[in-house]
Amino acid sequence: MPNKHFYFAMGAANGVLVAYGIRKARHWLYQHTQWMRRLYRWDRDWFLYFPFLIGLFGVIALTPDILHALGILPKAETRAPVFNLFYFHSYFEWLENTNPKIDWLLNSIGSIALAIIAIGILFFYIAEAKRVAQAIDKTKQTNDQNQKSRPRMNKRHG
Amino acid sequence: MIDELKGIGHFTLWFMGGFVVFLRVKPSAKQSPKLTALTLYAPFIPFVLGIIGVIPYLLFVLGIISHETALSGVFNLFLFYGVISRVEVLSNLFSNFEIDAVLLGGLYLSLVVYYIDLVKKIRAGYAQ
After folding, report:
1. Is residue B54 domain-resident?
2. CB–CB of A4/A62 below 8 Å?
3. Could you tell me if residue B64 is inside a domain?
4. Residues B68-103 pLDDT 10s
5. Chain A neighbours among B 21-60 (CB < 8 Å)?
6. pLDDT tens column, A144-155
7. B120 to chain A: which residues are within 8 Å by CB?
8. Inside any domain, residue B49
9. For a FRET experiment, which of A38, A105, B35, B39 has its CA 20 to 30 Å from that of A83?
């Protein structure tokens, strides 16, 4: 069967899409929803915590395996069609049984996807750090210019 | 017979090694944050070491080299791949996929926490 990391990667990839969608729609959400305003009040850098949401999606994708590991359901039942709700879990298990090479392929895809997501998140943080520093520098420059122009205005009026 | 260390084991081992290097070179918590290359890119050290350590295994899996060649002398240039593969203690420690996944997940999480802290400090430091 495909290793757990394949399913985790599927969930994480979906989590990335959800996180990206929320970031894109944040201004609209701020104007129209209460929870987004609350989120901004809680922490203006709330988006930094989104990798945890991505991880949560990955764990959700592992639900059938978690149910089996906890002894709640036998392995055969975690392959029932209803578990296709968890990123086509049952379908991928069936697919792997029909062709052993698919197992290797799915595991490789899972590994590559996880590596891309993990490194991509780190690059996101680098971009975010640079963006925050630039934004603050800009604000500082504007404040300095305002302070310089203020005494001249006072003289003129005085 | 000793079980040889697999690719994920090599990656985890050198990721941990890289994490120790990262802890040594990262700016201390008391220092004010500056956007230097080291501050920004230090968390990539574990990834770089992990990938270098696993290159012979990848070449073997892709069918470019044989198993024997991967364990031979010249491939010890990739962070002692051949030697480490045969060390029994390391093989026992890092051969379990689940344990490797938990170790990697935990270390990766601390890299994420480092970046969150860095962005927060930059905002606080610049704002003063």
Report:
1. yes
2. yes
3. yes
4. 888 887 888 888 888 888 888 888 888 888 888 899
5. 35, 40-41, 43-44, 47
6. 888 877 765 555
7. 45, 48
8. yes
9. A105
